Fold this protein.
Amino acid sequence: YLGMLVWPMTAFGWVINIIQRGRASYRRLMEVLEEENNITTNDPVEVGSFEGHVVMKNLTFTYPTGSRPALENIDFEVKPGSKIAIVGTTGSGKSTMAKLIARLYPVEEGMLFIDGVDINNLRPEAIRDNVAYVPQETFLFSETVGNNIRFGNMEISDEEVERYAKVASIHEDIEGFSKGYKTIVGERGVTLSGGQKQRISIARALIKEAPLVILDDCLSAVDTETEAEILKSLKESEINRSIIVISHRLKAVVDSDEIYVLHDGRIVEKGAHADLVEAGGLYQRMYERQMLEEKLEEE
Ligand SMILES: Nc1ncnc2c1ncn2[C@@H]1O[C@H](COP(=O)(O)OP(=O)(O)OP(=O)(O)O)[C@@H](O)[C@H]1O
Ligand SMILES: [Mg+2]
């Protein structure tokens, strides 16, 4: 009898193991599936393609989990087709501004408008279609490089993928991988450098051809020359885009139409590069320091 019991007992142990593992995974899955959407659109206004006009009026925002406002009394404007920069100290609220425009968090009514429509009346889908947002933390799937750029839209042709990879200055790197655009990213494939990941996510954002592009410090791991090249090809493309660039490197933003300087959730300065340098405030100090650092590096 003992002999007959061995196999069933082993199988039993096995099954218990599988059930436990399944339960742990299920719990994690349900956490995602049960997450409630706190972004609601009451009376959605149907808009076609955006012009890329963003306005913040005396915007104050506190994170749902935060104790103090991450942004306070922000007045901000991006005119259609212009290039606007947001710079400032760490933790000053730059990424928060980007996230609000991408409608990742709910804002009060009457504070944030896109093309004159309150963001609360724009369906999230309309925003996803019209805003190319490259977040500060890049995220790539364990998929082929090509599909990471396509991001689920299989109708995009290989030529198109290549064209945008070129705009994001990543084409040559990809050609260098063993299987080119078919190389798998991540644990099972190629390990990418920070800069390569950033450029792939830029290509992914640009392929949407959106009229409003937000780059959240997504060129930090790219050298200055490549950065300048990417920004230039963005500006020169045929569609009239509004571009919001968030950067720690002031050199990348000197040619912006307007630069907003943030500190501790507030806008402390704004204007064109030359004016800000002349004003002798926070921007000027940051700029001087970076120029000095660059000089020291050269020596
Ligand atoms: N999800 C969140 N929940 C609560 N507080 C947050 C959250 N994200 C950011 N904060 C807080 O909001 C403030 C602004 O953060 P934000 O990420 O916008 O700064 P940043 O200017 O982008 O900084 P960095 O230059 O380091 O990227 C910080 O004080 C931060 O602690
Ligand atoms: Mg940030």
